[in-house]
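pinned: reference chain
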Amino acid sequence: MSDIRIATAEDQILLDKEAKYCSYGDTVHYIEPPRIFSRCEGSYVWDTEDQAYLDLQMWYSAVNFGYANPRLNNALKQQIDTLPQIASQYLHKGKIELSEMIAVDAKNKFGLDGRVHFNVGGSQSIEDSLKVVRNATNGKSLMFAFEGGYHGRTLGASSITSSYRYRRRYGHFGERAQFIPFPYHFRGPKGMTKEEYGSHCVQQFARLFETEYNGVWDPKVGSSEYAAFYVEPIQGTGGYVIPPMNFYRELKHVLDQHGILMVSDEIQMGFYRTGKLWSIEHFDVQPDVIVFGKALTNGLNPLGGIWAREELINPKVFPPGSTHSTFASNPLGTAVGLEMFKMTSEVDYGAMVMAKGKYFLEGLQDLQKRFPIIGDVDGLGLALRCEICGPDGFTPDKATLDYMVEEGMKGDMIVDGQKLGLILDVGGYYKNVITLAPSLEISYPEIDLGLKLLEQLLVRATKR
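pinned: its C-alpha cells
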C-alpha cells in the first residue's frame, strides 16, 4: 500500500491557482491532493502523470456511451462545420427531429400525445417542469418528493430536493415539498418482503388523504393543496435505491385519485442506464411529465429538457415565452442527441445493458458473500449499488467507504501486471453507498477488472 500521494510540481502550480481564483461553490475535493485529468477514452481517464483510472461512475451517468465515443464525437464535429449555433427562437432541423423522436417514443410507450421543451441541463429542465406543473394546477406551489430524492441545486430544484443543506443558506423561492419515505427495503422494517414494504409505503402516503386534518386534501371540494409528486424512479444521489416493481403502479393510482401529477426525473437514470430509455418504463405507469438531461448528449453538450402531456404543454396553455434559455435546443446538442437515438436504435441496448448488469450484479453478490462489510447490493441494468457497513453488515460506515475512494484514486493497484486506479462515486442517505454507473459500452473483461479492483479495495479496507 502506497503512502499519501504528492502532487507534481506542475499540478501544484495549477492547484495553487485554483485555490486563489476558482469558486469552490461547485467544487468538492473528495481526495487531497485532487487529481487533474488530461485525457479520456472508453471507460478510462488519465491524469497528468498518464496514470489510468477505470471509471465506474462516468460523470454521474452523463457519459453513458463511453468517453470520447467516436460516433457521437463525429456528430458534434460535423455539426460544427455546418450549423454550429443559432438563436433558440429560430428553427433548425435538429430541434424538430429530436423532439419528434422523443414524443413519438412516448406515444408508443405510454399512449399519450405530448411535446418536448429543451433547456441547457437537468436542473434548468426541472425548473421548466415546475412552471408547467404550476401553470397546469392554477399556480399550486406545493409538491411531494421523496426522502433521499435529488432534483438539482437551482432555487426551485433544491426546494424539492430532500437535502436541507442545499437550501439552508438560501431559503425557498416559491416551491416547497413534503418529503415522503421511499421504499428503501434494506433499511425498512423487518419482516416485510420488498413488495409488501412498497405497498406499506403507498398506504402510509394514502393516509394523508383520508381526512382534511392531515393537511393535504379538502374532501368537500375534492382538491389537494399539492400539485405534483416528483419521483426518481431509481434514486440517484440517494444511493441507487431500487423500489419494488409494484410500488409506482400503486402510488400512481393514489395520485390519479386526487388529481396530482407524476413527474419522472430521468436526468440520471434515463437513456438506457437501467436497460430502458426511461427507468419509469419498468414500472407500468404513465407519467405526466418526464425530465431528462445528462446522457442525451453523452456529456458533450449541456442539453436537457422535458416531455409533457399535450394537455399540460400545448401552445394554448403554455404559450411562447413561458420560459426561455439562450442556448436551449442548440444545434450542437440536438445533433448529438439525434445521433445517440440512431445509435441506440441499431443495437438492442436494452438487452445488452440488462445482460451486462446481471453479470456485474452477480460479481457484486460474490463479493458480498466474501466481505461482511458489504451490507447490500442491488441493481437494475447498469445502475448498481454496493452498501458499505460495519462488521455487523448493517450499520452505515461512511469512513470505510471514504478510505476506499481515496485508495482507489492512488492509482497503485496492480491487476495482471497493469497499474491502475479506480474511480468510484459515493451516495446514499448515510454516504456509505458505492453507486456504480459504468459505461454502457463497458466490456465483460472490464467488468471483471472492475470487480478485481473493488476486491483489492475491500481487502485494504478490512486490513487497515
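why pinned: The mean pLDDT is 96. The domain at 9-68+349-463 is CATH 3.90.1150.10 (Aspartate Aminotransferase, domain 1).
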